[in-house]
Known about the structure:
By secondary structure, the protein is mostly helical. The protein is 68% helix and 0% strand. The radius of gyration is 28 Å and the shape is elongated. This is Importin subunit alpha. InterPro entries: ARM-like (IPR011989), ARM-type_fold (IPR016024), Armadillo (IPR000225), Importin_alpha (IPR024931). Belongs to the importin alpha family.
Amino acid sequence: MSLLKKTPLFCVAECSTFLDQLRHERSRESQIAASLYFRKKLAACQEPPYELIEPIICELIDCLQRPSSELQLNAAWALTNLACGSRQETHRIIASGGVSALMRLLAASVVSEVRNQAVWALGNLAADCSVCREQVRSTGLLELLVEMLELPEYQDSDARKIVIWCLANLLRGGINQLDLECVSRLISALHSTISLSVNGEILCDSVWSIAYLMDHAAADGERIDLLLAQPGIVVSIVALLKSDSVRALTGALRTVGNIITGTDEQTTAILDFGVLNDLKVLVDSDIHQVSRECLWILSNVAAGTAEHVTRLFSVEGLSDSVFRLCQDPSPRKRKEAYWVMVNAMMGAPAPLYDHLLSGGLAQILVLLLRENLDAALLDRTLNTIRAALEDRSPSRQYTIALFRRVGLVEQLLKVARGTMDSVNNSVHHALMNTFLEQASSILRQHFGISVDDGSQSNKKSSRDVSIQVRIKRS
């Protein structure tokens, strides 16, 4: 919600008078006084008269280019606070050339306070929405911020704090294309900040900057390799899994999770830092976001190699926690816990698979089909059930008997007939025919049941399409 709403408006007459004094024809003293007026009024969260917002924005932007550092500072400060307002005001600043004017100021000014204020204003603009963020990114600000972080004057915590806060806003949502040299320099600069910061916003923004930097990194894996190759940084991030700061903790979790979406080798590398023991503790957190994030990470570990699945369930008590969370009151938590179990079922070595199946996994599959929370999860589950029946020949008869005993056949019949319950049926309406065919095929091939009448059948059907490979979720 706009920070400028629900507060008294400027006095229209007074505002018009100071706007007139802000024009470049007026004396420098008058312009400075007028810019200070708007700076203080906007800092008090007062909204200008609607009809004057655009001319105020245009004059303030013009002031950024005038030869007075005091005037530039006041104008940049006022624009910073306007950018905290409504989306309409932010978009007006951008449409009026505010981003390019602030960038020119940042590049040209030799006054650190003016430069810092320009960074602050650009950070607020980038924070508004994805469209604004792309507009700010397109100016080359990211590369300029990297250079600033390497300058001696930006080793000071206050100046560095603003730059890294702006950086976090720019990187939010991830960037698909980014020069690897820039990534390497960023990782180095952020690592030094994390190493020197015990707590506070600068630590949180640094950790989240790295997390955002690793978003979409699994596509080529090179960014993750750069992070893993930076001496000491993974140790610092993993240590934050024990942080009392929820924001720092969740940033570290997201970073670990993004690494695990990478290659099997990268997953092994991060697991070697002992993160599974930390995740075991955090998955039972009372903080919903923390618990869900842990489950997401664990589901991607379970989507890895047989070794990864074995390591996952070798952590004492972790399987009990995941089984328990499959029945959590929160549907979102249940869904993530289901993903862990379904992925593990697909990738576990035979002894572990048998242990999980007899230990309650079959009942979890019944719950999963009954709830039908997510189209991708349902598709994954049906493929996993088929794989269990086709690829586990030594224990196939036991698996069939167990599936019958826990009620899985009845749930498969509901799927095949399109009569299963669903909290999100409309989402996968277009995929329903695929699910019907998958369930029908499983019932015919492995249980001898014809879906039309639910009777036993001796007919044999052709094999379905090949089983999906394991895919980690980013």
